[in-house]
């Protein structure tokens, strides 16, 4: 009898343990501490808000966000857990958290992520509208990456933009100006390219990387290429303009201006090549310059940033918006929103951009006048925020456009010509087919 | 009779209660996730939305038609079978060498395991540097030996990229085979070789008629296990090429990651990952039967 009782108890315990694994988070508190210093109820158990943050290459800015969040937590008697992880690990972690309905309450998202995960994010339109009414509109490119289905799903926090980098000493040696158009770029490359002496004219990745996507997208836009129509549903990628842009990129590579291995580069490859003095021009976030200055590298003195070259249809730059969003599953939506409001307050943003030394570009015009953006190295590229675009432009950034970007289809198209010797039109047809498959999925 | 019946029921209940934890664990960690994955693959399922529609085999059909999937499937098969073939051959050679008595053999046996012990992320980064066309070690060596005239973009061309990542996989996995086979070789009594030698058998005959049969089961099991692992491998390729250039090294696992985590389309991603299931099932059945025969 005793044996039977023990056995039954064992089974029951196991069942309870399994059921317990799927227990729901605690109910949300009705009270909110607000963005001010209003204290949380004293008789309740201390609440905990977790923040998942992506490491940036300016650690001072990350440290400031953590410090401010914890200050807010102390004032409101809420424990703040600040978890900062590498960007490369972020997607898998956040996707797992969303699927398991557990994890951070507040997270920093990147580029297309808010659109991909929009259904898991809390509507923060009220806060966004408040910020807009107080400080003006967000830049168009930033808004597109945080706004879905007629509502704000995240609040734009900062922008990272690839800027055009040149070695001034090399250009001066040949008495050449910074190329203003893509035609100039080709001609400049033809003069300065010197692989025999270990210096390539241009370093651009043609792989699944942010740098690769950005370069290809910017050039294609400049030639008039469009992913989809303004309805965001009709694929218009297969056009003479896209073909012209593709052929232009191919011509740069086939002329030998770009290292052959760039088809396999990752986001750090051009940084390393630049720091090794192997490139005369590249496009990258100003992180390379930041590191050169930090390391007292003599290359810093001959590294200059400028606007991207212009194509037949204009000058374009893709922006990576980093934005803060609240997870729908959070047990503390009001408190988390109050924390978000505190972090994105006027004072908070000013401190943040200043701590970042200007390497994180602003998301609103108001902050363009900060001293950090007046420094010579950043003044010109930061002005490109006015025309910065999001993936999918001129159409909206839809989940389909986000998926095209995430799968690197445009950069694959270029690589198919470079690596597999496909005819440009055949590569374009193939890319269009892949894009159409994605759009069909969403248009059903 | 009645007492016996009660006793049987009591015994059954006791037996069930003892096996219940294991049934729950296997059910919770293996069976449920497996059927859930199949259900996901038959659904429109995005990160954050859950199941929004049942689409039947549509995910499989669309996946099968996809150009990138076809590339990834072909690459996965080449990756798995080429890697395993070379690992078996090189692992066997290494095991035969390590089975000999020589000075510092213990140290060398330990050293052989180094590629297998180093975290894949680190070794992948080192190999990226070795294969780099701008000052990479391999090009520098080959240029100095005058074996090539210009640096080769090992990871940058369709022909060499897959070859490069496969060679890294072989480098990493050969020690596992070597040590596993070495353990098998140690179980073959030395007297048999001595007897064979007296009977006039040469080294090749000893290998074919004594060594191979002696390690047959170890060899088969480790080959099958390694094939299963290779089909599910992710880290080397993702860290070295992210499936590029132009999908030349995309594996089913890297494609699954891209579609599932970067694009948020879990339904389609799971359908990609389930495609090699029949091959894996056959391998698993083979292993199970082999193990049963061993017992």
Structure description:
The complex is a heterodimer of chains A (444) and B (295). Chain A has 444 residues and is of the alpha/beta class. Chain A contains 18 helices and twelve strands. In chain A, strands 1, 2, 3, 6, 11 and 12 form a six-stranded mixed sheet that branches. In chain A, strands 8-9-7-10 form a four-stranded mixed sheet, with helices on both faces. Chain A is globular. Chain B is flat. The longest helix of chain B has 40 residues, at 2-41. The relative contact order of chain B is 0.13. Helix content of chain B is 76%, strand content 3%. Chain B folds into two domains: 2-41, no CATH class; 58-291, Orthogonal Bundle (MetI-like fold). Chain B has helices spanning 2-41, 58-65, 67-98, 105-112, 114-117, 120-131, 137-144, 158-186, 190-198, 203-231, 235-240, 252-262, 266-274, 277-294, and strands at residues 43-46, 50-54. A two-stranded antiparallel ribbon of chain B has the order 1-2. The chains are: A alpha/beta (444), B mainly alpha (295). Chains A and B meet through helix 1, helix 3, helix 16, helix 17 and helix 18 of A and helix 1 and helix 12 of B.
